[in-house]
Specification:
- The structure is a single chain.
- This protein is α+β, with helices and mostly antiparallel strands.
- The chain has four helices and five strands.
- The protein has a five-stranded antiparallel beta sheet with strand order 2-3-1-4-5.
- A hairpin with a 4-residue loop joins β2 and β3.
- The radius of gyration is 16 Å and the shape is elongated.
Length: about 150
């Protein structure tokens, strides 16, 4: 692991997003709550939160962090069609929470897929990326603002 013992504690925030692309018919089933496994969006939200808290167990060399906030939002988007997943993770510490936000989004997307795969196996998980982060020596990052 990287030695962060000399770094000061700062407020750290990371926001990540991803998408699960599916047919309009599958999205309708998800929204009606008719999936065989139950409440797809609610279960995926809880899975994302749990995953953020366990990132250090899943990603080698990640520091275990005391997270002060994990919010996972799943928003249906009929224009995709599919679900847009966003995670915001906060802490006060010596290292950032980018991996926790990305892990939350990844696992929430995987959970949507798992819970709806009986209806549609051709769903796609796309666009998992860091949207924004702040705190620490590297300062603020906003996707699209770093392009040359």
């Amino acid at each position: 692991m990287v030695d962060v013992s000399g770094k000061p504690d700062t407020d750290r925030v990371a926001i990540a997003e991803g998408r699960v692309i599916m047919t309009a018919e599958t999205l309708a089933i998800v929204l009606r709550g008719d999936a065989k496994k139950g409440d797809v969006l609610g279960t995926a939200r809880i899975a994302g939160i749990m995953a953020a808290k366990r990132t250090h167990e899943l990603i080698p060399l990640c520091h275990p962090l005391l997270l002060t906030r994990v919010a996972v939002d799943l928003v249906p988007d009929e224009t995709l069609p599919g679900v847009v997943v966003t995670a915001e993770v906060k802490t006060r510490g010596q290292t950032g929470v980018e991996m926790e936000a990305l892990t939350a989004v990844s696992v929430a997307c995987l959970t949507v897929y798992d819970m709806a795969k009986a209806v549609e196996r051709g769903m796609r998980i796309e666009g998992i990326r860091l949207i924004e982060k702040s705190g620490g020596a590297s300062g603020r990052f906003v996707a699209g603002e770093d392009a040359p």
